[in-house]
Amino acid sequence: MTEGHNAPAFRLPRDGGGVATLSDYAGRKLVLFFYPRADTPGCTREAIDFTRLADAFAEAGAAVLGISADPVKAQEKFRDKHKLGVPLISDEQHEMLEAYGAWGEKSMYGKTFLGILRTTVLIGANGKIARIWRNVRVEGHADDVLAAARSLL
Predict the structure, then answer these.
(1) What is the percentage of the chain residues whose pLDDT exceeds 90?
(2) Alpha-carbon span 122 to 148, nearest angstrom
(3) Residue 49 belongs to a domain
């Protein structure tokens, strides 16, 4: 997946019931932030930052979705505990994570394993990948993504 290419389609369960699909957001800008695990410190901060800026993203014509491999129930518990205001998608089979390049090799304490790579993708209203942030550092990230969404026509 690279900038300028069509965004991969997805259809996955989301918090609150129902499913989320790429086509639900046709004609709108869409921010996808992929986070490793619900209710961990970095992921919580990132989700809270995107929630804090939800109205500003809406004013910029962009929807925001958070995606992890956590089951829907864990996503809902995370949402409720931190009063999150962005939809959370569950990708337990890693289909969307792999399609968007957010699943791969990680290392911690000298061990290598497969897991979610903190990644954010901005999709333009035309359905094409406008920008990809890899190996995201949480501090200030949501603000950077908002600036990019605002500058995108």
Answers:
(1) 97
(2) 8
(3) yes
Q: For 69-89, what is each residue's pLDDT tens digit?
A: 999 999 999 999 999 999 999
Vertex 150, ends 144 and 153: CA angle to 5°? 135
Structure-token pair, residue 149? 């969404």
Query: Rounded to two decimals, what is the model's pTM?
Result: 0.96
Structure tokens at 71: 């089951």
58/71 Cα distance (integer angstroms): 27
Look at residue 3 and tell me if it is in a domain: no
* Domain CATH code at residue 146: 3.40.30.10
In a domain, 114, yes or no: yes
Q: Which of 30, 32, 43, 62 is catalytic?
A: 43
Active-site annotation holds for 43: yes
Q: Would strands 62-68 and 103-108 be described as parallel, antiparallel, or unpaired?
A: unpaired
Number of domains in the chain: 1
